[in-house]
Amino acid sequence: MKNQQNKEILEQELERLESELKTVGRANPKNPEDWEADTTSVDIDRADDNEVADKMESFGENTAIVAQLEIRHSEVKRALERIEEGTYGNCTVCGKEIEKERLVANPAAATCVEHMK
């Protein structure tokens, strides 16, 4: 039952992450598992320097946001894969059961407290 509850939590988080990613980026057409920052088109020939600078700043911010969201997206997907494989809740380093408190705080946790990064 615990795995089913965590699976639902993880699936909801995955949906939320994908929605957030779509606001600042897009799936890479060459690799759908990869996300890239959205580049709002700017007509450089007609744009003034301030507009170009604003667009570049926005792109830089989006790149940082996409990077963070993409990391969490991957963690959640891997946790869902572990549920399907039957290895969810076990530390990927030592194989021992991950502490319940850790899984409550972070349902995508892959390691026990001892092996946290």
The rough form would be described as elongated
**Lateral strand order in the biggest sheet:** 1-2
Distance between the termini: 28 Å
- Strand portion: 5-15%
**Count of domains:** 1
The secondary-structure element order is HEEHH
Number of strands: 2
What radius of gyration results from the CA coordinates?
19 Å
Helix content range of the residues, please? 55-70%
Biggest β-sheet description? 2 strands, antiparallel
Can you tell me the residue ranges where pLDDT is under 50 for at least 5 consecutive residues? none
Number of helices: 3
Subunit organisation of the chains = single chain
Helical/strand content category:
mainly alpha
User: How confident overall, as mean pLDDT?
Assistant: 84
Tags for this entry?
117 residues; mainly alpha
Description:
This protein is mostly helical and 117 residues long. The chain has helices at 2-24, 49-85, 100-105, and strands at 25-28, 31-37. The chain has one domain (2-88). Helix content is 56%, strand content 9%.
Would you kindly provide a brief summary of this structure?
Residues 23-46 are annotated as: Disordered. By secondary structure, this protein is mainly alpha-helical.
List the helices and strands and how they pair.
Elements: H1 2-24, E1 25-28, E2 31-37, H2 49-85, H3 100-105
Helix pairs in contact: 1-2
Zinc finger (dksA C4-type): 91-115
Organism: Candidatus Taylorbacteria bacterium RIFCSPLOWO2_12_FULL_43_20
Pfam families: zf-dskA_traR
